[in-house]
Amino acid sequence: MNFDLTPQQRQELWSELFNHLESYYAHTSELPVSPELDREKIVALVEKYSLGEGTGPGQAIAHVVEGLSKYAVHTPHPMYYGLFNPRAAFPGILADAITAAFNPQMAAWSHNPFANEAENFLVRELGEKFGFPKEKIDGVFAGGGAEANLTAVLCALNRHFPEYANAGLAGIGKRPVMYCSAESHHSVIRAGRISGMGLDAVRPIPVDGRQRMQPELLSRQIEKDRAEGFYPFLAIATAGATGTGAIDPIPEIAGIAERHGLWLHVDAAYGGAVILDEEKKHLLKGIEKAHSITFDAHKWLSVPMGAGLFLTREPDILSRSFRITADYMPKEAQGLPVTDPFTHSIQWSRRFIGLKLYLSLLFFGWEGYGQAIKRQCRMGDLLKEELQKNGWKMYNDTELPIACFMDPGHEQTPGFARAVCDRVLESGKAWISVYPVSKLETLRACITNYATGEKEVLELVALLNACRKEYLM
Fold first, then answer.
1. Which residue has the higher pLDDT, 136 or 334?
2. Which of these, 64, 69, 296, 459, is most buried using a 10 Å CB contact count?
3. Is the sign of the CA dihedral 226, 313, 141, 323 positive or negative?
4. % helix / strand / coil in the chain, to the nearest 5?
């Protein structure tokens, strides 16, 4: 089998694929947002062709595009109001194609110095935007926020327990505990398990009426744990909670972390993007005091999935946490003031994750992103205003474009929010979700799509009104 197609064959396939993708990209808004969830039909389509024999190239491409068009929640749709999966801007799509063609191996700096330095450049730029001292900025791209949060936990463990790298938890002779908001992303909780500490080592701190961690309860829990023989080592603040958009009081948490000698990590996977909006960046006041930050470009910067970032102002901690020697790895860069990424991160083999952000910035610049964030925040404000005009009540309190809302007359009606949500999804016209705020199930809508405008916001409110009316009939 000759895998190397002729130039003419490649050109024909590129052209065929482009036609399919352009049709999807240009007409996404005409598709139902939610798919039919019939597993038998889906499996039958997946298994339509024998993998032993294969099929023709054109037929194969059409088959995959058909499957993804029919059976996927279309997150690029302007009526998708979901979980931080925005429509990918075109430079990011091009970047993924470029990355696939060049297929750079990023583990060793010498194998792809341009790609590695492009990512280093982005690390420095973002570190400065978050207020880290220029000379201390370090970081690494990750598959997503979960990996970046796990990196933070491992770095904090290595900072507090130098013997952890070799002896593991069994060799440190202490019982480490970490703290996070009760509204933290569950990847923070899971990091406690993966690191070997276990779920019991993670202390979720109750939130206030605005769904923010309560600093006084954090301080009290730290003191209680110390008195009981535990070793507090890490506090994680959330900047843009997945459910409600809440931003924890970072300055107060930073003060407590400093007073008790804890590593402070800020999970700004979503909310960190407001640092690019001059009108909203004050919401992240105090983030510069963090030892490390999680940021996801794929959540609000409109790049394809899988573009997480771990940033730190502790320039030696990544090497201390992940450095290992391997005789078979390239040595061409020995003697140069560079770092091989495989000694600097959880990943070993890794793709050029940063290109989708780098190319997008070459197209639009930080200023362009700032304008996009500002516009989406305005659309979020419009959504909240229109909902309240139409008898819906807001149950979260955030300046970010996330609305958690309910009909106040049906707070005690079991299943009301879920029933309305199901009707919205079944219509195929929009995608929203249900999220509990202070134990009350609310409807949740979030705007991270640059294609979502006033027209779509008004259509969503009208759809919600219609689904509510249908439920009450």
1. 136
2. 296
3. negative
4. 50, 15, 35
Quick check: 323 pLDDT over 90? no
Query: Comparing C-alpha atoms, which of 194, 123, 207 is closest to residue 153?
Result: 194
User: Within 13 Å, how many C-alpha atoms sit on residue 177's CB side?
Assistant: 22
Assess contact for 414 and 64: CB atoms under 8 A.
no
Nearest to 270 by CA among 178, 139, 412, 148: 148
Beta strand 176-181 with 202-205: parallel, antiparallel or unpaired?
Answer: parallel
Closest CA to 172 of 189, 191, 159, 188: 159
CB count in 10 Å sphere of residue 441: 20
Q: Are residues 225 and 177 in contact, defined by beta-carbon separation less than 8 angstroms? A: yes
DSSP character at residue 243: T
Tokens 């009707």 correspond to 423
| Alpha helix positions (H), 103-144 | 113-129
Q: In one letter, which amino acid is 24? A: Y
CA distance 259 to 269: 26
Kindly report the length of the chain.
473
- What residue type is assigned to position 241 of the chain? A
For the record, the structure tokens of 390 come out as 């139409």
Asked if 295 and 272 touch (Cβ cutoff 8 Å), the reply is yes
Q: What is the rounded distance in angstroms from the CA atom of residue 396 to the CA atom of residue 185?
A: 17
Task: Please name the amino acid found at residue 267.
Answer: D
Check if CATH label 3.40.640.10 holds for domain 99-360. Answer: yes
Contact 230, 177 (CB under 8 A): yes
Give me the sign of the Cα torsion angle 78, 94, 102, 21: positive
**Residue 63 neighbours by CB distance under 10 Å:** 16
Instruction: Report whether 402 contacts 244 (CB < 8 A).
Output: yes
324 pLDDT above the threshold of 80: no
Strands 176-181 and 138-142: unpaired
First-to-final CA distance of the chain: 63
Q: How far apart are CA 53 and CA 63, in angstroms?
A: 15
The pTM assigned to this predicted structure is 0.95
pLDDT (tens digit, 9 = 90+) per residue, 242-277? 999 999 999 999 999 999 999 999 999 999 999 999
Q: Which residue carries 């194998």 as its tokens? A: 111
Kindly give, in sequence order, each residue whose CB lies less than 8 Å from that of residue 465, ignoring residues fewer than 6 positions away: 390
Place of tokens 């305005």: 378
Alpha carbons 172 and 165: distance in angstroms, whole number? 10
Give the SS3 label for residue 259.
helix
